[in-house]
């Protein structure tokens, strides 16, 4: 019996196109300096190991020519599309019966943008506390999916029983990692509507 639901953010609740950001960033960079960019720039930023300033500085140092930080910030945020109201309504409805959490690989630049998007497009403030019991952002807790430690941390921190917990994510490696800990998990395809899919799971 499901008592707890852990949602991913991007392409589960929030519509994004990750490739748009990576293409925009790559257009600014010198390919010869970016062989290990995920390990040395993107992942450390997601885990909070480097600051926002250091993140953009590392991008500047790998560029064909150094541009203003705002240029990189716009490119980095190019992935964001919209947050359909039906999904916000879903979260409110689920909280009446289930413990609802958010677990996302993300960074301060993206979360700041998402908060502004929600306020501008959905008139939503206090997103984290209004729609979830607790939010786990990778950059705040120093861990990222699909590493085993992040799932163990969430289960322990929220006092969740794995078998009573449903985890929803759009990346198969994250779903498989959760299943390895006994968590019930759903691999969500972005073309589907999570507000419809979730109730099939909970019937």
Structure in words:
- This protein is 48% helix and 14% strand.
- The chain folds into two domains: 4-15 and 84-202, Rossmann fold (3-Layer(aba) Sandwich), CATH 3.40.50; 18-76.
- By secondary structure, the protein is an alpha/beta fold.
- It has helices at residues 18-26, 37-46, 52-61, 69-76, 85-94, 108-122, 127-131, 138-141, 148-157, 172-179, 194-202; strands at residues 4-7, 15-16, 80-82, 99-104, 134-137, 165-169, 184-187.
- The strands form two sheets. Strands 5-4-1-6-7 form a five-stranded parallel β-sheet. It has a two-stranded antiparallel ribbon with strand order 2-3.
- The radius of gyration is 17 Å and the shape is globular.
- It is built from eleven helices and seven strands.
**What is the CATH topology assignment of the largest domain?**
Rossmann fold
Spatial sequence of strands, sheet with the most strands: 5-4-1-6-7
CATH architecture of the largest domain: 3-Layer(aba) Sandwich
Question: How many strands appear in the DSSP assignment?
Answer: 7
From the helix content, strand content and strand pairing, which structural class follows? alpha/beta
CATH-level-4 superfamily name of the largest domain: HAD superfamily/HAD-like
How are the elements arranged and paired?
Layout: E1 4-7, E2 15-16, H1 18-26, H2 37-46, H3 52-61, H4 69-76, E3 80-82, H5 85-94, E4 99-104, H6 108-122, H7 127-131, E5 134-137, H8 138-141, H9 148-157, E6 165-169, H10 172-179, E7 184-187, H11 194-202
Parallel strand pairs: 1-4, 1-6, 4-5, 6-7
Antiparallel strand pairs: 2-3
